[in-house]
Write a structure and sequence with these properties.
Length: about 160
Amino acid sequence: MIIESGKIVSVEPEGLWVETISRSVCGSCKAEKGCGQSLMAKWSGHTSYIWVLLEGRNPDAYHAGDSIQIGIPEDVIAKGSMMVYLVPLIVMVLMTVFAHQLFANEAMTVLLAIVGLLSGGGLVRWHAWKTRFDPRLQPVLVDDREKINLVESAISQ
């Protein structure tokens, strides 16, 4: 599991909105100029947020501004990366071979290669939309504040 630290931006009854790119950390990192995350954050002017389910935890234990750790299974990242890169490429190659065999015209081959690449991207987007609520693909909370609160309350009694 890949662990990432983040800052809670918003607390809702079902989950948390977490910001995972800390600009203060990016500014002090030694790889600032070579880091893609830092560069994208500077260009876009805004940060992206991740939705993390509470999975039955008490939302009152979390507050905006708190630091938490979230985890994403390594196989989810590996399979997702392979799908994002390989599916459009494979569809493009198949469409290129098909166009070359059918038309034997370079312009049509190039056109269908572009259509194949865009179609592969569309397939990836459709799959991402279809699996967006799959719990196996969602980030999870790694540190559990409720357990800490229960232990602290048991000690104080």
